[in-house]
Write a structure and sequence with these properties.
By secondary structure, the chain is mainly α. It contains 14 helices and no strands. The longest helix has 27 residues.
């Protein structure tokens, strides 16, 4: 039997926050196939990400709020085995496309396991964990999704048309990643995990993220201009506006009372707005690139 605690710790709805990476890869993939789209989507969002969530929760044993769970229940032994089962299912779904894609899923899973496993615990190294999390959830996942969607192999990781947009997704995540830790300082310090947000401090975390958000915005502007997609650029700017407004509103409150406002509710609000807006933008970008919008006269 799978316990209610395990189902909660898999945090399947939390996959929504990583969906923009898949949608960006989908928008740029030239060789789409309906069955591959389904297998890649299911492998990533219903099995690989939940497996990672559950496995890391099992070893973290958080007592305070974590991403997607304000009051996490105590973990049980079945969480460990269910997370491994989900990992195996993800790899099996990847094998329906090709074994290169399945091996990419396997590689991602191993890195994810190393994040919290006590024998490695990448999480306790502030800059290394920040770099690896952003690189694998961004560039690596973008290239992996692109390879799965187009039935390609590992050589895709060396292609310029993959490296550039892949690194753009990593920039997004490198900016947001410290904000996901800003309300967990007490929990992380108790376990001895010196996260990047803990290292930077609350106000330092916001300043650092603001700089990377600005860099990410400039990089996306350059990318769309380089592709001569002026209309997309305007839509991107409109999509980013509510995210920027929310961030600076949150930052203004944090500057007056860091301990009060650097909390779970604000962080999840930031994540939710970012995910919804960016998912909507990349769906639009997918439709734009496949010329569906033009067929309807837009």
């Amino acid at each position: 039997m799978i316990s209610a605690s395990t189902i909660k710790h898999l945090r399947i709805p939390f996959s929504l926050f990583l969906m923009p990476v898949f949608l960006f890869a989908l928008a740029l993939s030239p060789n789409l196939n309906e069955s591959r789209m389904l297998w890649v989507f299911l492998a990533l969002h219903f099995f690989l990400y939940p497996s990672s969530n559950g496995y890391n929760s099992y070893f973290d044993k958080d007592e305070e709020s974590i991403g997607g769970l304000k009051n996490p229940p105590k973990v049980t032994k079945d969480l460990y085995w269910v997370s491994l089962l989900f990992f195996a299912i993800a790899i099996g779904l990847g094998g329906l496309i090709n074994w290169s894609f399945a091996s990419m899923l396997f590689c991602y899973g191993l890195i994810s396991m190393a994040y919290s496993h006590p024998s490695v615990r990448i999480k306790k190294y502030p800059w290394l964990s920040w770099f690896i999390a952003g690189l694998f959830q961004g560039y690596f996942t973008f290239a992996m999704a692109y390879a799965g969607l187009s039935d390609l192999g590992w050589d895709i990781f060396t292609k310029t048309h993959i490296i550039i947009p892949g690194l753009l997704t990593s920039l997004m995540l490198w900016g947001n990643y410290p904000l996901t830790q800003v309300y967990q300082h007490r929990e992380d310090a108790r376990r001895g995990d010196r996260t990047l947000s803990l290292l930077l401090g609350i106000k330092g975390t916001f300043a650092f993220s603001a700089f990377l958000f600005a860099l990410t915005g400039a990089a996306f502007v350059w990318y769309f201009l380089d592709r001569n997609q002026i209309n997309v650029l305007w839509v991107y700017g409109s999509a980013m506006a509510p995210i920027i407004l929310f961030f600076f509103l949150w930052f203004s409150f944090v500057r007056t009372n860091p301990e009060k406002y650097a909390n779970y509710n604000w962080a999840m609000g930031m994540n939710s707005i970012s995910a919804l807006v960016l998912n909507a933008f990349f769906v639009y970008y997918f439709l734009e690139n496949t010329q569906i919008l033009q067929a309807f006269g837009y």
